[in-house]
Amino acid sequence: MLSENPRTFETVKDVILSVHKASSAEDPHQIHFYNRWAQTYEQDVALLDYSAPSQAAARISAHFSGERQAAKVLDVACGTGMAAKMMKREGFERFVGVDSSEGMLNHARQSDMYQELKMAILGDQPLPVPLADFDIVIITGGLSESHIPAKVIRELCQAVKQGGLICMTTRANRDNVGYKAALEAEMKQMEEEGLWQRVEVTDVSEWERGVTDFDKGYIPGCVYIFQRL
Ligand SMILES: C[S@@+](CC[C@H](N)C(=O)[O-])C[C@H]1O[C@@H](n2cnc3c(N)ncnc32)[C@H](O)[C@@H]1O
After folding, report:
1. Is any ligand 1 atom within 6 A of the Cβ of residue 38?
2. Does 221 sit in the ligand 1 pocket, CB within 6 Å?
3. 37, 99 in Cβ contact below 8 A?
4. What confidence tens digit (pLDDT) does each residue in 63-83 have?
């Protein structure tokens, strides 16, 4: 069903709503869902005007002051590679990707943008990279309900060098309200623990087109940038 053509907004809406309905027992980490969606993922999210990768890359670019070609970027929940593609346009060249779906990782591999790609179910398994090794961590589209638990942002922070930047995004629409609150509580707690400092939070009103009955038109989203202390 997921590879049917031609793709339209309605087809994509059905695909996304099917994941909301999928029983957690059948596919607790959405791995099968993303394995099946990988083939048409980029085409489909273009129909949604999905902007997380370009919004995140633009905000990182505004704050990163180092040598871009040399900077090591960890792309978490990399999917097919959309965030790395946007970062590349901003002058970054060295990427390591992590994702739980082999199907998505296969597409990322074909993009030839990553020096390394690793599979891990974050939340259940540790982030499979050395500590304090990266200049930047970026995660777009992975921090939401039934994807990556909010507590994993501690591991994202540990993956960057002191002074490195962590760029995270989440949706701000109705069905992600609880997750967003938990994410922001964890961010604040980490600030209070002196692990990182907030650099910028950007609210974006036209994040992507909504697909549920509650989300008419565009839904909002948010880009967070923190710096490791
Ligand atoms: C909406 S896609 C975003 C992909 C890409 N970053 C982008 O913005 O296009 C979400 C990605 O998160 C991955 N993912 C979901 N849960 C995960 C988990 N627990 N650990 C690792 N990756 C996960 C999925 O396989 C999928 O590739």
Report:
1. no
2. no
3. no
4. 999 999 999 999 999 999 999
